[in-house]
User: Which sequence fits this backbone?
């Protein structure tokens, strides 16, 4: 098989985005645009991938480290000049080179594979990925000869009325014979209004030398979208969201309202899980089978086990076991571990805590910087007092503890196995196992107090 290479153009700043963030790093469904492109290219058995970086070079590299080589375009002088920066890596190699823009996050690996196969099957020196659209204004038109090969690309402003009626357009993705590409790049001129070196000029050079230039038309025009501003970014987000949701539904996940469900590209979901409306699943979240998430829930970078229910709640950067009940209106903050069969009820906040199997905090509690054992019951309104104004301290609650309502556990403190905390207690010292701890003032009733108070008034 012919060796394959890829060049990704990701050096531009993207001034039309009007953003401090470099264009190719704007996320689409939780992943930078350029990373979508690189991940799709990785499915093509590519020998070398070179990303051309410029603006925001170090940030782009940090996102793609280990997935790509890099070449710096220190000065942005056009797309042909950008590709030329990869010469040190690719220039002497034999094979096929795919050139893709880093701002086309919707392009699919299977489409690029079909483009490469078409290119190699035609024996072409260059092949253009084209698309069909009923609204081709602004695009370069593909003019083919009677054999179906590309005769020329005509820019919209230069096209005749007949040529403007052509609906097949240039998407800006190309396939080249690698040697022919770098030979032709040396002949590209910057004799134009912008004073830049344009990659489509390579097509004209190869044609003038009598080489075969072919075209492959994608069946899905949406995937050719180039994102240059926030409007196009929103369009890409909508299309990607639909694609992701359909993928999960075809793999056995029920999504009640796909139009109002937002799932990032790297989320995994098991079969027979139900996702209810208004749910946002972000980052590297993984959800098991037969779970139910939502409605109106936000989950980011969490691992959630089978049959767990999380409703109207927020969970970030945490591990949540199987058969867990969370919510409504609970908040699982980062670095928490919720083991199997736990119940975290309404208006309960968990932060940097471990919650043992079958333990419960059913309502109106804060458990932060804590180790909670198995079969613990934490009563309504109880909190771990973890912060002294300077440092956070640990609360340890061992297996089988019963914490009465409205109790304060002032850390650092430990409650031994099987102990009871009386309701309304403020615990400031360790509690031995199997004991009852009462830490509250003795009740005093002053009879006739109100009558005497009213008499004084």
Assistant:
């Amino acid at each position: 098989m012919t060796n394959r290479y890829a060049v990704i153009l990701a050096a531009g700043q993207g001034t039309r985005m009007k953003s401090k963030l470099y264009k190719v790093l704007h996320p689409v469904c939780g992943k930078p645009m350029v990373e979508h492109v690189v991940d799709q290219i990785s499915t093509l058995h590519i020998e070398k991938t070179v990303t051309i970086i410029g603006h925001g070079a170090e940030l782009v590299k940090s996102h793609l480290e280990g997935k790509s080589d890099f070449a710096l375009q220190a000065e942005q002088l056009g797309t042909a000049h950008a590709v030329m920066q990869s010469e040190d890596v690719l220039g002497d190699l034999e094979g096929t080179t795919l050139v893709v823009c880093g701002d086309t996050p919707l392009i699919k690996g299977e489409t690029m594979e079909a483009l490469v196969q078409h290119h190699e099957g035609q024996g072409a020196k260059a092949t253009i990925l084209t698309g069909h659209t009923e609204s081709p204004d602004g695009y370069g038109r593909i003019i083919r000869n009677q054999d179906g090969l590309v005769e020329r690309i005509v820019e919209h402003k230069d096209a005749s009325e007949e040529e403007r009626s052509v609906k097949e357009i240039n998407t800006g993705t190309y396939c080249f014979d690698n040697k022919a590409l770098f030979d032709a790049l040396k002949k590209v001129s910057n004799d134009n209004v912008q004073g830049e070196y344009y990659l489509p000029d390579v097509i004209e050079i190869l044609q003038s030398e009598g080489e075969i230039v072919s075209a492959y038309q994608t069946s899905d025009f949406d995937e050719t979208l180039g994102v240059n501003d926030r409007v196009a970014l929103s369009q890409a987000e909508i299309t990607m969201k639909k694609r992701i949701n359909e993928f999960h539904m075809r793999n056995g996940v029920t999504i009640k309202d796909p139009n109002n469900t937002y799932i990032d590209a790297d989320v995994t979901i098991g079969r027979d899980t139900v996702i209810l409306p208004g749910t946002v699943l972000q980052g590297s979240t993984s959800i098991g089978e037969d779970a139910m998430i939502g409605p109106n829930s936000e989950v980011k970078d969490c691992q959630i086990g089978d049959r767990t229910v999380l409703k109207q709640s927020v969970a970030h950067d945490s591990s949540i076991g199987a058969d867990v009940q969370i919510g409504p209106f609970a908040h699982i903050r980062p670095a928490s571990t919720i083991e199997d069969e736990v119940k975290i009820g309404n208006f309960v906040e968990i932060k940097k805590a471990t919650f043992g199997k079958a333990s419960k905090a059913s309502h109106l509690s804060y458990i932060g910087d804590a180790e909670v054992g198995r079969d613990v019951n934490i009563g309504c309104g109880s909190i771990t007092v973890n912060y002294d104004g300077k440092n956070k301290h640990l609360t340890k609650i061992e297996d089988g503890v019963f914490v009465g309502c409205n109790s304060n556990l002032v850390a650092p403190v430990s409650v031994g196995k099987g102990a009871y905390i009386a309701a309304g207690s403020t615990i400031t010292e360790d509690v031995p196992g199997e004991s009852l701890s009462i830490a509250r003032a003795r009740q005093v009733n002053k009879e006739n107090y109100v009558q005497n108070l009213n008499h004084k008034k």
Observations:
- Residues 54 and 342 are 50 Å apart (CA to CA).
- The chain has two domains: 4-224, 230-437.
